[in-house]
Amino acid sequence: LAEESPDSAYHSHGSSLEEEAAERMDDEEQERLLSYWQSVGRGHQVDVPRDMAEPIQQLTRNNNPQERQSIPFTLIQRKEKLGDLLYEKRQYGKAKWACIKMKEKQYEQSICLGFMKLMRYICEQNSSGLYLGITVPIVTIVHTNEAQSAMTQAVTVAYYLPEVLQDQPPHPFDSDIIIEEWPATIVYSRSFRGITNEDSIMREINLLAAILESPELCLRDTFIIAGYTNPAAANRHNEIWFLQRP
């Protein structure tokens, strides 16, 4: 066997030291991100388990605006008043979504826990073993009573599958996640910022109902909250969607 030259020995040791340092930095980044999410979770009365460290890190690293795929839609109409956008009327096509039903005591708990389960699915816990990629918005289907005065506890958190996966969506390892095909839908969308809870959602529902010329054309008890920023963000960009009756 040929003897290892001092130079090659240095390179092999040097590279292993670099790898160790990179791993240590990787671990430190995971810990930092996990502790941040855990502190946010406590604010929503949600426990963020240790096994979320890797999905959180993957999602954070891939969460550049350039990496995110927007859900395609056709703009039908923009309603403005004195230069301010009141709402948009849009057509969304038929598509497959990964959905999970949640029924926690508070809305924020439901979306945080539902989002974490979807994150695991997106971050390799699926039959393809691959990172699936982020699409925006992540949506939550909410229900109210007929009078639109109160929300019910049950919500559905849903992730739009990227275009390349629409024909053959990877199978989730989590049996709570169901792949559903949603029909083409016309929505009336109005944007708002900040946290989403029962009070802010009911306020936005009532606001959009008052602005729409023909609110009777829409479903009266089913609405969608579209989130463009993750639930850990403070000043979130959201939309309320009214669904036109089929």
Automatic annotation (TrEMBL):
Question: Domain of life here?
Answer: Eukaryota
| Protein family (similarity comment) | Belongs to the HEBP family.
Q: Can you name one GO molecular function term for this protein?
A: heme binding
Q: Which InterPro entries match?
A: Reg_factor_effector_dom_sf (IPR011256), SOUL_heme-bd (IPR006917)
Q: Where is this region: Disordered?
A: 1-28
Q: Which gene produces this protein?
A: Hebp2_1
What's the protein here called?
A: HEBP2 protein
Q: Where are the transmembrane segments?
A: none
Q: In which residue ranges is the amino acid composition biased (Acidic residues)?
A: 17-28
Which organism is the protein's source? Urocynchramus pylzowi
Recite the lineage of the species.
Eukaryota, Metazoa, Chordata, Craniata, Vertebrata
Question: What range does the record give for the signal peptide?
Answer: none
